[in-house]
Design a protein that fits this description.
Blueprint: E1 2-5, H1 9-19, H2 25-43, E2 49-55, E3 60-66, E4 72-77, H3 84-88, E5 95-96, E6 98-103, E7 110-116, E8 125-129, E9 132-133, H4 137-148, E10 153-161, H5 163-172, E11 180-187, E12 190-191, E13 197-198, H6 204-209
Parallel strand pairs: 1-11, 4-5, 4-6, 4-8, 8-10, 9-10, 10-11
Antiparallel strand pairs: 2-3, 6-7, 12-13
Helix pairs in contact: 1-2
The structure holds uracil.
GO molecular function, one term: uracil phosphoribosyltransferase activity
Function: Catalyzes the conversion of uracil and 5-phospho-alpha-D-ribose 1-diphosphate (PRPP) to UMP and diphosphate.
Pathway: Pyrimidine metabolism; UMP biosynthesis via salvage pathway; UMP from uracil: step 1/1
Length: about 210
Amino acid sequence: MQTLVVDHPLVAHKLTTLRDVRTDSPTFRRLADELVTLLAYEATRDVRVTDVTVATPLAPAHGVRLARPVPLVVPILRAGLGMLDGMTRLLPTAEVGFLGMIRDESTLKAQTYATRLPEDLSGRQCYVLDPMLATGGTLAAAIEFLFARGARDVTAICLLAAPEGIAYLDEAFQGGDRPIRVVTAALDERLNENGYILPGLGDAGDRLYGVV
Ligand code: URA
């Protein structure tokens, strides 16, 4: 598995305000959206394209277009929804599938409660949106789900990641034959006893949408 921590002053600047406990939900949503677009730029570095030729007003020009099948963007409900617009802004022709997953707070295991995805993902490049890579359980379950339907490769875009989550994914998919990438704005220190990332930013879903 490949992990990329995007090292850019604008990413660091926006992330710092995102972490700040004084940042309100509307500002948090806007910053998360902007951050995702910056991360998506790096995350799509290997997106498949095909060669095309277009006519400029003066001459033919060689270029590229996104290859088919188009990429599939998969926000993990609920917090991943806060990353969807930032991602599709960069990939407007991508299709979007949904995975509803919840972490059981006592066992920290992921449970799937909703799926809305194509049955056949053969040849698809999938971009999973999950703001917090904490224990890695939710993301591992999502990646397994997508591979079971035939996905060609999976790139996870996470606002923050914990070393424990990266290690968990590394081990879970060790020796696998399909590429996995994690693109994140920062690799934080560790998890606390409740599986929250430290220093982190708290509960991403709550900060995006309020405590429900
Ligand atoms: N989910 C969150 O929203 N925050 C964390 O720190 C860990 C998991």
